[in-house]
Amino acid sequence: MPEMIITKNLDVPGIDKLDVYRQNGGYEALAKALREYQPDDIIELIKTSGLRGRGGAGFPTGMKWSFLAKNDKPRYLCCNADESEPGTCKDRVLMEQIPHRLVEGVIITSYACKVHTAFIYVRGELAKAGREVERAVDEAYAAGLLGKNILGSDFSLDVIVHRGAGAYICGEESALMESLEGRRGYPRLKPPFPAVVGLYGGPTVINNCETLATVPAIIAGGGDWYASFGTEKSKGTRIFCLSGQVKKPGNYELPLGVPLSTLIYDEQYGGGILDDRKLKAIIPGGSSTFILSPDKVDTPLDYESIAAAGSMLGSGGVIVISDATCIVGAILRMTEFYRDESCGKCTPCREGTFWMTEILERLEHGHGHLKDVDLLMDICDNLAGKSFCPLGDAATSSITSGIRQFREEFEYHARYGCCMVSSNEKKQQQPTTASEPVGTH
Amino acid sequence: MISEQAKQRMRELASRYPMARSAVMPSLHIAQQEEGYITPEGLRAVAEAINLTVADVESVATFYTMYYQKPQGKKIINVCTSISCYLRNCDSLVSHLEKRLGIKRGETTADGNYTLNTVECIASCSSAPALQVNGEFYENLTQESADALIDQLDRELGVEKRV
Amino acid sequence: MSEEKKEELVHLTIDGMPVEVPPGTLVWAAAKQAGIEIPIYCYHEKMPPLGACRMCFVEIEKMPKPPQTSCTTPVAEGMVVHTKTEKVLKARKGTLEFLLLNHPLDCPICDKAGECDLQDFTLRHGPGNTRFDLHKRHYEKPIPVSNDVMLDRERCILCQRCTRFSSEISMDNGLVMISRGYKMEVGTAPGEAFDSVFSGNTTEICPVGALTASTYRFKARPWELKHTASVCNNCSVGCNARVDTRVDRVVRLMSRNNDAVDDGWLCNRGRWEFDYVNSPQRLRTPLIRRNGQLTRASWDEALTHIATRLKEIKNQHGAQAIAGIGSTRTTNEEAYLFQKLLRQVLGSNNVDHHHGAFPGVRDQLTGKPWMMTNSIVDIERASHIVLIASDPYQRQPILNLRMKKALSKGAQIYIVNSAETELDRLATLKLQVPSGSEGMAVKVMLKQLLQNASAELPAAEDVRTHIQREEQAIRAAEDTFGAQMTTRLQSLADALLTAKGAVILYDEMATLTTGNQDLAADAQALAVLTGNINKPGAGVGPLFEDANSLGARDMGLLPDAFPGYQAIDKAGLAYDEILGNAQVKALLVMGANPARHIADGKLPGSLEFVVVQELLLTETAQQADVVLPALSFAEKDGSMTNVDHHVQAIRRALRPLPGAKADWEILVALAQYLGETWTYASPRDILLEIAEQNPFYAGLTWEDLGKQGVRSLEEQEAARV
Ligand SMILES: Cc1cc2nc3c(=O)[nH]c(=O)nc-3n(C[C@H](O)[C@H](O)[C@H](O)COP(=O)(O)O)c2cc1C
Ligand code: SF4
Ligand code: FES
């Protein structure tokens, strides 16, 4: 098993407390950063490490930091801990179990980016995570790790933990800033990018929780050490959230570039498909990414290879679908999510997700028409690339890739008013297993 | 009723942020803690503390699903029905809870004890199916463990065993 | 345009057409300039781009992921834009289809039909038929969001123009978006109305029929309306307006953008309060008092009677027994002729109108006549705005919006007022002083400035003498204000000294409150001492009351000034004197209602003969001996001068009410009956004469006024001639 970086010591009892975290080497990276590095050196170090954002887009982190506008406005750091992409559950675990790793990452990043006020935007639903992070911040203040003259240096930092209140879109960085400013979480026009005009008009860095939690390890181990994991262009490790119809779902930290099949089938990880059924489809990076067919199961889990296979590494949420599942029902469920989470600002996303859900619903329930399948594709065409922010595009990913790969299932629904998967099951008269097939009627 | 203490906390929050307006969400959380959901009075208290109009605060409050627009039960059960839980049979979990509690999703029991909601992904995907009771997680649920959970909640609420 | 300027322009190609525009221009605006229409819903030229409706797609070469929204993309040198490619047309059609999913098909009974952007764009860009065969969203049909505005949520396309108007322009945040996603709707706070004097603008900028005016609902179809470019007659701002009429009635006023005056907005009073124009009570024939009763008469009878009586009184009591009260709402031409009639034809200098208390014809310190020294646009450039005893929201509403625009650009607002005002919520500081002591607050500030030894203050000695005389009163006022407020006033005075630009404004009529007599002069002194005069974004002056309050002054409706503030050797009686001096036997009133300013509402019994030119039988007209029916602003041509000295044209929008005459026509006729031959055939002839005599109007012609008027100032005009 490769050495773990982000999830290291995750299971040490009491690691959520400051003293235990420190006993296990916690905050040594911070001390080292303040002692040995100038802010710009840290940015260079992160560039060397090849760390890329774990929030979804995979943007090189060091480069993002170096883009900060140089002006006299106050700078801000926002930690994006609004984790809500269906299939993703890693940030929550980091915050609940080892909150100080995040806090340490926030302090080092603030130091590197010359930020004196940082926000940790914790998804509202994650009550425990919010509590733990708040407590860690309080402990850090009490220990002189936050506030004025941190560890005796002349660096000072204020951290505010801000709790969301139920809106997926606030994970999008500009909507997150709007939300932090006390408004409805509508995404903002870009440009200007946050690095130039961000929170309260100041230059702002926004990074995912896992991204920031990785920073201390890089300081401690060095950029080259971190870059020695992973592939040429996708360096390091990341947490893959394996969910769906596998035997052992869970969060697994792996170096980038490990094949999907290892994650899904290896006994250390997924251990194979639930009920030993056939693999039907894989969603590799959270519900916003395109569905991959089983023949892509050997694709290495790195940004480039997954993109070449026709999808995205996204948030690291690997969702496995077995042949027990009707694709129409599953896609309906994902589309409902985007309908409910569309902020409503732009027309195509607000109306398109509503309309697509209506059509999928009637197909699923057997009232659909054959032409609905092409209609869905055309609505997706009118939505993708036309919406204000990527949420609209994301809403179409599962539909277009799903119809391309499983068109006959959609048409079956339209023709026979029922589901191909459950009819096949009946035909084959398979004995029912412990977990009954879902998406059937 | 929004207590004076709560109002004071809202005002303090307003001065904690670089811009008073940023305190609107934490203040709404406080208002909801006080009254269980967002009432017109809660909106007014937040508006006053932060110097916004009531409509402005309402506009923010209704954007976020965690600010309840109507009274909720003492135990708010939010069952995740997003894709990873869906692939793990959350729908039968919801049906089971509906039967057990005698209400449909989105409803509150007549005695005001339980509200049953279905919600979007709660970051419990690899321990699906999952639900939250008043914000706390219960994961890898089966019908049996769900029943045990309700039994325990019933005991906490002092509810007689249901027939 | 100078060569230098030209170089700064950005060059691009739109649909093969070369276009040049200033940097920062949006592609949408550049296309508009080239005569290419790109449909929009969420974008509005007076608000920052939103990019929400996704209607304004274009394709721009070398840009990623076509199509782009033209309302959010600024032009760049060498850009190549296509507005009609297949991709663009499909995307627009797609958006329209989305918008129509839930839009009801009630166009036949919709007020907006005929001027609806959804209707128009669907015709030009939309799908021919619908592929949506499911249930549309339903909401309760129109609900009132205020007494004036109705909301039909089914028709709403959620473009957010109205709510953004409410948050970004009027900043009263009364109309907001509620919920999110497909459940989103426009609404107000629970149990609260969208009570804003600006709410009517939302009915105008709503691109569909979702927000409609309750007064206008079902009154007319847009295609039956006649539009006339004119100016609102309600207050001194002089907002440019389009008067919409239908068969001899005004049905509504709509805004008509003038960046220098109204910035595209109109307040509810201007928009809807014109009932007097359409009133069935309008006077249609002259009335003569016979046996104590006002009875109908012909124009000839009435004018003969007036001429006879005036001559009798003049013969018996002398010309000084005749006086005239002019109007703040009639045109410059009419005000001019009114004083000319009194002065030249009847030989009396007893001319005045109802106005604030200003010492002398001009301010002693600056030598300027009493008017705002800054332009309206300067308000938006100011770093400090000081409002003393004035409430523009109530009295000059559209200026309130200009102040809010300044606020969003970083200005600080200071309010010294005994009453609460709408702007208080947004002000940096509100000083609520006791009623009638706003004037003393200014004196406290002047005193502070004079104590500032380090500052070299212009005209300080003149002011010092005056302030020293008031020493005791000022100290008493400081006691009343208390230490905190006094300190705040003093710091404000200091702040004005170093301000980038301060605009100091007071309400004209506040000078009439006991205690505020010196307000005008002291405010002027405050601006002079702090150097806030004659520089951009700075100024001082009165906010006038009525549409032509300033015009009335300019035209010499003053006892001590000829037109153009030219001094008079022997001043006539002033307004209060005219109404209180028993020597006055004959009174001519044009478009004014002095009975309102008399405690018991009764004109003095010593008056033997009163003539009133009016639209309706006002309190004053009821006491007249002859009443002459006049025409409203909507039925005649003429010029008016607004609060920052924009001379603007009002134009006949309605067929004149039969039997009534424009005030200038009445005056010409009256002159004739009095034996004088005036040959003015139209207001333009009168304006020519004004332009010859009045340095503020020098060289101005009717044609010059065009659609947007001219801001004419003494200095400029002097240079121009
Ligand atoms: C609709 C949408 C939702 C997103 N949700 C999240 C989220 O929950 N957490 C997150 O870290 N990033 C999320 N992102 C990505 C952020 O916009 C942003 O790219 C990221 O926080 C940057 O951090 P990183 O560079 O460390 O990845 C989302 C993006 C979109 C378009
Ligand atoms: S695509 Fe449009 S409606 Fe959807 S979330 Fe983004 S801005 Fe909001
Ligand atoms: S007008 Fe451009 S997106 Fe609405």
UniProtKB/TrEMBL annotation, chain A:
Q: Which cofactor does it need?
A: FMN; [4Fe-4S] cluster
- Keyword field contains NAD: yes
Family annotation (InterPro entries): NADH-UbQ_OxRdtase_51kDa_CS, NADH-UbQ_OxRdtase_suF, Nuo51_FMN-bd, Nuo51_FMN-bd_sf, Nuop51_4Fe4S-bd, Nuop51_4Fe4S-bd_sf, Soluble_ligand-bd
One annotated GO molecular function: NAD binding
Supply the alphabetized keyword list: 4Fe-4S, Flavoprotein, FMN, Iron, Iron-sulfur, Metal-binding, NAD, Quinone, Translocase
Reactions accelerated catalytically: a quinone + NADH + 5 H(+)(in) = a quinol + NAD(+) + 4 H(+)(out)
Source domain of life = Bacteria
Which Enzyme Commission number(s) are listed?
7.1.1.-
Q: Where is the NADH-ubiquinone oxidoreductase 51kDa subunit iron-sulphur binding domain?
A: 328-373
Please describe what this protein does: NDH-1 shuttles electrons from NADH, via FMN and iron-sulfur (Fe-S) centers, to quinones in the respiratory chain.
In its UniProt entry, what is this protein called? NADH-quinone oxidoreductase subunit F
Which Gene3D superfamilies does UniProt cross-reference here?
3.10.20.600, 6.10.250.1450, NADH-ubiquinone oxidoreductase 51kDa subunit (3.40.50.11540), NADH-ubiquinone oxidoreductase 51kDa subunit, iron-sulphur binding domain (1.20.1440.230)
Which PROSITE patterns does the entry link to? COMPLEX1_51K_1 (PS00644), COMPLEX1_51K_2 (PS00645)
Give the enzyme's main class according to its UniProt record, as a single word: translocase
Source organism per entry reads: Dictyobacter vulcani
Q: Which protein family is named in the record?
A: Belongs to the complex I 51 kDa subunit family.
Pfam families referenced in this protein's UniProt entry, alphabetically? Complex1_51K, NADH_4Fe-4S, SLBB
From TrEMBL, chain B:
Q: Known SUPFAM superfamilies for this protein?
A: Thioredoxin-like
Q: Which Pfam families match?
A: 2Fe-2S_thioredx
UniProt: [2Fe-2S] cluster binding residues: C80, C85, C121, C125
MF-aspect GO terms:
2 iron, 2 sulfur cluster binding; metal ion binding; NADH dehydrogenase activity
Q: Which UniProt keywords apply?
A: 2Fe-2S, Iron, Iron-sulfur, Metal-binding
Q: Which domain of life is it from?
A: Bacteria
Tell me the cofactor note: Binds 1 [2Fe-2S] cluster.
State the similarity comment: Belongs to the complex I 24 kDa subunit family.
Entries under NCBIfam families matching the protein: nuoE_fam, PRK07539.1-2
What is the name attached to this protein's record? NADH-quinone oxidoreductase subunit E
- Species in which this protein is naturally found: Dictyobacter vulcani
From TrEMBL, chain C:
Per the record, its GO cellular-component terms are:
membrane
Q: Can you state which reaction this protein catalyses?
A: a quinone + NADH + 5 H(+)(in) = a quinol + NAD(+) + 4 H(+)(out)
Q: Which residues form the 4Fe-4S Mo/W bis-MGD-type domain?
A: 225-281
InterPro entries in UniProt: 2Fe-2S_ferredoxin-like_sf, 2Fe-2S_ferredoxin-type, Mopterin_OxRdtase, Mopterin_OxRdtase_4Fe-4S_dom, NADH_UbQ_OxRdtase_75kDa_su_CS, NADH_UbQ_OxRdtase_ferredoxin, NADH_UbQ_OxRdtase_Gsu, NADH_UbQ_OxRdtase_Gsu_4Fe4S-bd
Per the UniProt record, one Pfam family is: NADH-G_4Fe-4S_3
Question: Could you tell me the superkingdom of the organism this chain comes from?
Answer: Bacteria
The yes or no answer to whether the keyword Iron-sulfur is present is yes
Where is each 4Fe-4S His(Cys)3-ligated-type domain found? 87-126
Gene Ontology biological-process annotations: ATP synthesis coupled electron transport
- PROSITE patterns under this entry? 2FE2S_FER_2 (PS51085), 4FE4S_HC3 (PS51839), 4FE4S_MOW_BIS_MGD (PS51669), COMPLEX1_75K_1 (PS00641), COMPLEX1_75K_3 (PS00643)
| Keyword annotations | 2Fe-2S, 4Fe-4S, Iron, Iron-sulfur, Metal-binding, NAD, Quinone, Translocase
Cofactor dependency = [4Fe-4S] cluster; [2Fe-2S] cluster
- Which one of the record's GO molecular function terms can you name? metal ion binding
Q: Where is the 2Fe-2S ferredoxin-type domain?
A: 8-87
Q: What is this protein called?
A: NADH-quinone oxidoreductase
Q: What taxonomic classification does the UniProt entry list for its organism? A: Bacteria, Bacillati, Chloroflexota, Ktedonobacteria, Ktedonobacterales
